[in-house]
Amino acid sequence: MNLEDLMQRADLWRGGCAPPPSGLASGYAQLDALLNGGWPQGTLIEIITAHRGIGELRLLLPALASLTEEKRWLAFVAPPYIPYAPALACAGVQLAHVLQIQPRTHTDTLWALEQALRSGSCGAVLAWLQQADGKSLRRLQLAAEAGDSLGFLFRSATACRESSPAAVRLRLAPARVDNRVSLEVLKRRGGWPTGPLDLEVNHALALSAFS
Amino acid sequence: MLWLCLHFPELPLEVFTRGREGAEPLLVCDGQGRARQVVHANTAAVQAGIVPGMRVSAAYALASQVRVISRAACTEFAALQGLATWAGQFSSLVHLVEPQALLLEVGGSLKLFRGVENLVRQMERGLVQLGYTAHSGIAPTRRAATWLARSASGICITDSPALAGALAGLPLSVLELTAQQRARLTGMGITCLGDCRRLPRAGLAQRFGPELVQQLDQAYGHAPDPRQPFVAPASFASRLELPGTVEHVQGLVFGLSRLIVELCGWLRAHSAGVMSLSLQLLHTKAAVTRLELGLVAPSREPKHLTDLFRERLGQTALPEAVEALVLSVSRHQPLAAPSRDLFSTRQATQGSAAALIERLRARLGQERVYGLQALADHRPERAQGGAVSAPPSAALAGGLRPCWLLPEPVALDLEGDRPCLGSGLELEGTAERIESGWWDGGDVGRDYYRARNRAGERYWIFRELKPPYRWWLHGIFG
User: ipTM of this model?
Assistant: First the structure.
């Protein structure tokens, strides 16, 4: 195979030339700039963190709210706690389009996740996986492509040592400053990994009447 | 009027074989004792040298493993009724032509199905899914359509002038005659209907009775041919015999898909969608296994229903091999055909969301798949519910809230006089007091704080207003 043939391939990434901007605006200008326009649709996105309560869900809410505004569904697969309805409603998420799935076993979790990603009706699927091997992640990545869905996988800190077919991998850590989260891009399309970036995220949502 | 006749030459055999893919030799016999004769044989039996008309004992001599089933007239009649029910989606006027044909008035359906060819193609596709082979005949009169189908010539005549020419070439076997009458006609050198028509009417009526002349008149459209229309049952229940017994759940899905195609034909004829279905698996000795399936939205999509049952069957343990399946509709409701939007695909995503919820529920269980709903209550644990697609309710005003709520508050340890979680928690901001619920027994009195530990994680904690003033963790600012 010569170089010309290789250049024709769509799956070949060339450093230095970024693909045209696409993706779902994340609601944070700095992050959009890093991710070439926002969360890339139809892919898996891994969010790796050793902490909880650092604004990891809050980071996604602007994008999730815009998806439910378009009447696309939002699925929580095996969430560790209850997504708090009044807070999500406050962030603009249409609760009528939210689905919670609590499978019994790990196999069922992977199955439900794949079904939700593949169905095409879910704009985004958020999943909390205990462990996942490369094969099942690749399956999920294909399902996300088939359903044009955003698959957010929350994984523990050990996952950053393993390779993954996810298009974007982020590592989150608490920032020194208030209301900020430190974000590190481990992998992205059309760019190199970046160092930590402090992103302003309001952790708490104030309830207002009749929202 | 235009009539389409479906003739099922293999019906006596197919009522037994359509439940399962498989090629074990099988034959259907008729008669008593030693005079039992083979009526129909499947491909595997024909390859073994068995032909219809043969004695059953001779068939055994050719293939010792052959399965012999006695012809069941009532099963065939039930199958024909099932077919008529299914055919209701193509025409509003269906007649049963016993023992093995159906007549449909299709003149009124041509516009809907965009022509005869399309209609016949759709019907043939459906019949393959149902597991029946059929010959079709189309003609302007009922009897001519029946004869064309019976002759298996595949002739389609849509206008009256061409009818006489097409009928002239048909063999005598299509006529309803006794063997003696047929032999006499053949003896007279008559081989086709055209020859029959050339004979003088009076003489023909005198020799063979007025019925033959009347049959011919009806076929050519010179005499009326009144018949009772078939009335589809108001509720659906259909039974499928399985050839041999099926021990594996996956083996049942094939037969079940046949029943579901039949069901969807009935639903389409009634412009309805099914809301809940019941499947019974009949065993030889053990009690009937019942599976109930509830749907979120009415549906008549064969693939969707089959997939749902496949998931359900995968979770079911069979006590014993299965002999027959019975599918019945417990609840249905009107369902208009979906009208497509020219620009948006929203309708499609709505539909598939309901399908996704059903598929997930079929495997994981009803209680493991639910929605999210905000309720008007100040107590955080009562401020949400799990209804799917609930109408939005007015949320109450309040202070700052976390994205995560713990299912149950968790008691916190104390480090000196400060609560701690991993490390000592630092309180932020001022307290928010929630005191509510004295009227319904769920009385709470709490001071909520936002707290932060040394690692930078933020929690929503509260302190009871009553002794012993314990600290609890209730939410996480995710």
Answer: 0.85
